[in-house]
Amino acid sequence: MGTVIIHLIRNTFRYASKKYWDKISFDLKPIYTAPTPAEARRCYEEFAEKWGRAYPAIKRLWDNAWEEFIPFLDYDVEIRKVICSTNAIESLNARYRRAVRARGHFPNEQSAMKTLYLVTRSLDPKGTGQRRWGMRWKPALNAFAITFADRMPAAEDQ
């Protein structure tokens, strides 16, 4: 997926008058939350009809990004919430780099993996506690486990 969805949405507002942002946001949501590409296209056509004359650059932006956007719709809604932005992944990678830099070296691969495992287990991005963070990610984790069953080991295997 080449287009980060949150950037596509943010760029939409770059071309619009601020006084219409709430209305545009309301009209955009059915596009990126649509259950199928066909439904998203239908919603987009309605959006383009309503906003395309006043803001042709928005229509061009979405037209140009459409082929990169529609693979996003192939994922479960819970997965979409995670992948619509790269922030969570970038944050995790930054934490991994910090942990590796602090350690300096590892005697073996197992100790490196243990360090990364412990960093992952200690995540608390909002400062509200591990339990709340875990609850937020459980639906996405379940969707990932079903969607990518061939890549994720079953619970019994661990």
UniProtKB/TrEMBL annotation:
It comes from Microlunatus endophyticus. This is Mutator family transposase. Required for the transposition of the insertion element. GO terms for molecular function: DNA binding; transposase activity. Keywords: DNA recombination, DNA-binding, Transposable element, Transposition. GO terms for biological process: DNA transposition. It comes from the Bacteria. Belongs to the transposase mutator family. The keyword Glycosyltransferase does not apply.
